[in-house]
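Case study 2.
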Amino acid sequence: MAKRVLLAAPRGYCAGVDRAVVTVEKALELYGAPVYVRKQIVHNVHVVASLEAKGAIFVDETDEVPEGKTVVFSAHGVAPSVHEEAATRKLKTIDATCPLVTKVHHEVRRFAQEDSEILLIGHHGHEEVEGTAGEAIGQVRVIDGLEGARTVVPTPGKKLVWLSQTTLSVDETLSAVAILKERFPDIQDPPSDDICYATQNRQEAIKAISAKADLVIVVGSQNSSNSVRLAEVALEYGAKASHLVDYAEEIQEHWLTDVETIGLTSGASVPEILVDDVLIWLAERGFGDVETVTAMQESLLFSLPAELRKDLKAAGQM
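Prediction:
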């Protein structure tokens, strides 16, 4: 039996995650430990543990940060109320919100000023959704899944617009939009696609592999929306089985029974070292033939947050 691994490209770190992680690392170098981070900087247990080892302290809310200290806001974004609370506590803030999430925040504010009601397709309780909805309290309705699209009852007489969380399944989002448009023909589209380029690209890459795979392994954490979506998309596009793991040692030997072709990818918040560990684990079990399947090339980079760039420049580090 010819055993092989089809390795998806692109995979792993996106520009927003890279920017957020480097922001915390540079802040620790510049200001010294501890640097506080509100929520997980990105949704990956390995990244969070690595930054904790360097002196980052992760908190749930800004009121856990001692007055006058530095706090980094995560890549998922925060509501204006969080900025206000940080200012009240005299915290030095560094906003590592992904610029693509910031774009959706701008859209919410703009449509809210036009007195539109915003139907935000996304997952209740996800940090990105909470931050986005917080831009216009009372004017945003969260549409969680297709059932949410079927059952939402907007305010009568309001203009409607739909927006979306950046890390959703492209296919499921389009299905939700189709339901909304059928129910509300006058609903307005966002000025541009909200689902981030990296989420879309990683989904396209795993789609290209899944029909050929007996098993797909997605490296990523359970609270990572885009990683969970990758495991789901793999099944939807023909993989016989799909599993989400944080580390190579979580892979179960019995998953490999009667498996010839394994598809491998990783979520947008996953460092490449974790994928390398999985490749080593698989090679030790006969899956040493690795073929990279490239859906598209990525070259996007984001500059560090303005607050951090200013301090790095003052310290002669830029």
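The mean pLDDT is 96.
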